[in-house]
């Protein structure tokens, strides 16, 4: 696949997806353009074989599916997440300092690297809930200009900062918004103006800071890419692109993007919620299948949990396992963990290797050092709702959980090709530990 063209599309997606709400909106726009029909959880479904559909939950999670035929067997699922560590703006956000500055009160969302947030242009995006004649409605807002900054304290005032510093989110990380003027509540007035309503009609909001630096290529031969939110919008984009280009034959193809992975997934729109389970059950019922049919379909299903992986760091190579080390541009990563932070086992590992071989995609193996705890992902969390063969994969990257991350220029195309084969294939459980792979 043409990695340059794929990266061009990826960069546009990243630059226009400052947070989960915009990422889901942009994915929905792609699904619309590719002929998918939108469904709603609160309305009846009328679905047919040979067609594609999608639905959202909370405007921050999306599931799309294609039904190949009425007597399909199982589901082929790729799941990723669309949230990233970020600062959320609190209610009653303005703080006035010495009648000169106005800064905003924020709190941390997820486990972030704080230092890279300093001294770079920031803005704000999210959703606003506004009053209507009949109730309330959601409006997305993105103040699309350089608006704020979190200024560092000069080294003259903290000579030991380069020897290690514990950042205090309430003291160090509040963004400078404006000079103090005669107008009060300037921030709420700005947001109201952006969405075209009066301040009184804004009932609530979920607003977040975001880094304004656009995605780009780096390296002598443009071999690296860098952007905010690579973890995990890079995987979400690749899954979506593979999904729209796929042709399912015997199984339902399911593109699934959850929210709130960075804070444990324990929400209605997270992997620990019922969104995937509800959707799969409803697909089966709409196609006239029984509960036994559903359980048999789950036994012949496969979930690929796609969440980025840690590449060997050029300055800290000792932080990586001595025998399982991954690098940018060397392929998709299969992730293993004895304590099941990653769900890959021998069966699911063998299945994904067969998919890589069919797709002609290189792959790598990642494990954490035995004396170092790694992160978890959504694969094992989703098992509490839908228990099926699951593998954890990802794309290698550096500076994970920074507002600006680095990855390989070739790897997105590898995951797109993988997703396309996954969504177009099937697996059938034929006995104890025996599975038929159909490409």
Could you walk me through the main structural features you see in this protein, from its secondary elements to its overall organization?
By secondary structure, the chain is an alpha/beta fold. It has two domains: 3-84 and 228-438, Zn peptidases (Aminopeptidase), CATH 3.40.630; 86-211, Aminopeptidase i, Domain 2, CATH 2.30.250. Helices cover 24% and strands 29% of the residues. The chain contains nine helices and 22 strands. It has helices at 3-15, 20-33, 186-195, 230-245, 275-286, 291-299, 346-359, 378-382, 411-424, and strands spanning 37-38, 51-57, 61-67, 75-81, 86-97, 101-109, 122-131, 136-142, 176-179, 202-211, 216-218, 224-227, 252-258, 302-306, 309-310, 332-335, 363-366, 389-394, 396-398, 405-408, 426-431, 434-438. The strands form five sheets. Strands 1-2-3-13-4-14-18-16-17 form a nine-stranded mixed β-sheet, sandwiched between helices. Helix 7 (346-359) links the parallel strand 16 (332-335) and strand 17 (363-366). It is globular, with a radius of gyration of 23 Å. The two termini are 19 Å apart. The mean pLDDT is 95.
């Amino acid at each position: 696949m043409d990695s340059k063209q794929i990266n061009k599309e990826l960069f546009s997606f990243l630059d226009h997806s400052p947070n989960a709400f915009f990422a889901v909106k942009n994915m929905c726009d792609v699904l619309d353009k590719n002929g998918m029909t939108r469904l709603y959880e609160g309305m009846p479904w009328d679905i047919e074989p040979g067609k594609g559909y999608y639905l959202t939950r909370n405007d921050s999670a999306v599931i799309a599916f294609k039904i190949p035929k009425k007597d399909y067997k199982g589901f082929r699922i790729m799941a990723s997440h669309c949230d990233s560590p970020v600062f959320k703006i609190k209610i009653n956000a303005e703080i006035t300092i010495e009648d000169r500055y106005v800064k905003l009160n924020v709190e941390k969302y997820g486990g972030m690297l704080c230092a890279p947030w300093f001294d770079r242009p920031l803005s704000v995006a999210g959703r606003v809930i506004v009053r209507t004649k009949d109730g309330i409605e959601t409006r997305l807002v993105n103040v699309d200009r350089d608006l704020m900054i979190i200024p560092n304290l000069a080294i003259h005032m903290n000579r030991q900062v380069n020897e290690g510093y514990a950042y205090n989110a309430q003291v160090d990380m509040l963004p400078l918004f404006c000079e103090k003027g005669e107008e009060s509540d300037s921030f709420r007035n700005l947001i109201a103006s952006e969405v075209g309503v009066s301040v009184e009609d804004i009932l609530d909001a979920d607003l977040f800071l975001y880094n304004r630096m656009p995605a780009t290529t780096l390296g002598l031969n443009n071999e690296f890419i860098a952007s905010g939110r690579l973890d995990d919008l890079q995987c979400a984009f690749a899954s979506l692109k593979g999904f729209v280009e796929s042709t399912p034959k015997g199984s339902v193809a399911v593109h699934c993007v959850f929210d709130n992975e960075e804070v444990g997934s324990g929400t209605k729109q997270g992997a620990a919620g019922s969104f995937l389970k509800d959707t799969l059950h409803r697909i089966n019922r709409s196609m006239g299948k029984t509960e036994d049919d559903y359980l048999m379909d789950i036994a012949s299903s496969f979930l690929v949990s796609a969440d980025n992986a840690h590449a060997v760091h050029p300055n800290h190579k000792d932080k990586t396992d001595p025998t399982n080390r991954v690098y940018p541009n060397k392929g998709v990563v299969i992730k293993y963990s004895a304590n099941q932070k990653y769900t890959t086992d021998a069966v699911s590992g063998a299945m994904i290797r067969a998919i890589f071989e069919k797709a002609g995609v290189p792959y790598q193996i990642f494990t954490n050092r035995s004396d170092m705890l790694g992160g978890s992902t959504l694969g094992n969390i989703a098992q509490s709702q839908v228990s099926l063969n699951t593998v954890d994969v990802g794309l290698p990257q550096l500076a994970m959980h920074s507002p600006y991350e680095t990855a390989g220029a070739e790897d997105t195309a590898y995951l797109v090709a993988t997703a396309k084969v996954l969504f177009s294939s099937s697996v059938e459980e034929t006995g104890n530990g025996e599975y038929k792979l159909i490409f």
